[in-house]
Amino acid sequence: MNILVTGGAGFIGSHIVDQFVGEGHRVSVIDDLSTGRRKQVHREAAFYKLNVCDPRIEQVFQKERPVVIMHMAAQMNVRKSTEDPVFDAEVNIMGTLQLLKLAVRYGARKILFTSSGGTVYGEQEVFPATESHPTRPLSPYGISKLTCEYYLEYYRQVAGLQYVALRLANIYGPRQHADGEAGVVAIFTQQMLSDEQPRINGNGFQTRDYVYVGDVVEAMRAVFVHPVEGIFNVGTGTETTVNEIFVRLKELTNSPCREIHGPAKKGEQLRSVLDAGKLERETAWAHAVSLSEGLDETVKFFQQQKRRRFT
Ligand SMILES: NC(=O)c1ccc[n+]([C@@H]2O[C@H](COP(=O)([O-])OP(=O)(O)OC[C@H]3O[C@@H](n4cnc5c(N)ncnc54)[C@H](O)[C@@H]3O)[C@@H](O)[C@H]2O)c1
After folding, report:
1. 147 is in which domain, residue-wise?
2. Is 47 within a domain?
């Protein structure tokens, strides 16, 4: 099947591309390489270095005729979204709208969208949150993701375009870049392996729901092969504090660093954890990689990268 992956040079996108190329699909990638890396894109995938807002992406649709679109290209830095909400909306909302318009024009069947379970609910009232939890995003990034969900539903109604929006929790694993906002695992790991001193924001008791990237690939596969539509959380249902992540990574990296705390980040969400029961019931997906296994894999990846840099 012809599959178009936007953001396919990024952390999650590149793993998705590997999976679907491996299954024998014809995969094309649109990515402007703003945070992604060309070398991460599977060599059998067709690559187009383009911004999703660029009208020339129509030529990709003309040539590739994708049946399924996996839309992962996004401005995903929460802090940047508060500093420049216009830029965030341009990439995340206008880019998505442009894709939806072309998807309909060129007869795509389904679009899979990566939304953000860590931001669309805002400060949670119920733990873990199901998809019916009130949505009160506290950042322009969360607002832009939620807005796209409304547009997906609009295009389903007016044009019959099938969609799945996966509200992802905090994803970590190999290839995550260490300069992202959500990537505390990548940030701490890289710092510890480079003998730098990490700093925990605030008291470190803020919690997140950490999901290994391999489980996200499986979630994407599940909503690709099952005839499901709508909004689904992707999480583990387990909260982990930043302090706990710090301690586990310190052990795995054998780092001599100390536990140092800095000022709390203004407006940072305190607790976030998702109930993925709907996805489990409708597709039989279940998260398979424990936090210990996932952190172990992630540290091994960054250690390998470091060795490669020095050989
Ligand atoms: N990592 C997480 O914890 C997490 C959580 C929730 C949702 N998400 C969503 O998952 C998706 C992938 O995130 P990721 O963690 O892999 O981030 P990433 O930054 O590694 O990937 C995003 C990719 O999109 C590309 N891109 C950005 N703007 C673009 C544009 N205008 N045109 C074309 N390409 C563009 C980047 O170069 C990059 O390759 C994003 O939509 C993000 O919002 C991620």
Report:
1. 2-171+210-234
2. yes
